[in-house]
């Protein structure tokens, strides 16, 4: 797996993934940026949320669960001093699907956390990661 970050101007960079996708990274104005892109630490949280969402959805679909939507919201705290690593991360899973099994949802989340989600396992070495989840039995909008 490869990636590259290239400086554009001020504190703006473009990041290109090995698969050829591009994203803009930038900083807040007080740090010399223009707020024109995602912050690198936000990108880490997006990677975590995406990694676990992929896992949970795939596990539920393979188990033939009637999942119609999956949203993962992340709330994290960072250390106050450098290096400002994440200290706590909470993942809130919001799933939809009529007849979803609560036991299978919890198992899918646990499997992601403990076995499949590389991002969760790596970040869990420095931060306390917790989760909660809800299931809306109605079809997703």
From TrEMBL:
- Signal peptide from the UniProt entry: none
Pfam families assigned: OsmC
The protein in question is named OsmC family protein
| Organism for this UniProt entry | Microvirga tunisiensis
């Amino acid at each position: 797996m490869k990636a590259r970050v290239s400086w554009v101007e001020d504190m703006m960079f473009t990041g290109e993934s090995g698969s050829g996708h591009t994203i803009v990274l930038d900083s807040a104005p007080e740090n010399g940026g223009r707020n024109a892109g995602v912050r690198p630490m936000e990108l880490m949280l997006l990677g975590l949320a995406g990694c676990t969402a992929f896992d949970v959805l795939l596990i539920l679909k393979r188990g033939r669960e009637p999942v119609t939507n999956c949203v993962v919201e992340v709330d994290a705290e960072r250390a106050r001093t450098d290096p400002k690593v994440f200290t706590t991360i909470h993942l809130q899973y919001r799933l939809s699907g009529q007849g979803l099994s609560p036991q299978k949802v919890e198992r899918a989340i646990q499997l992601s956390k403990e076995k499949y989600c590389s991002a969760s396992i790596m970040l869990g070495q420095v931060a306390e990661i917790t989760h909660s989840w809800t299931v809306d039995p109605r079809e997703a909008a």
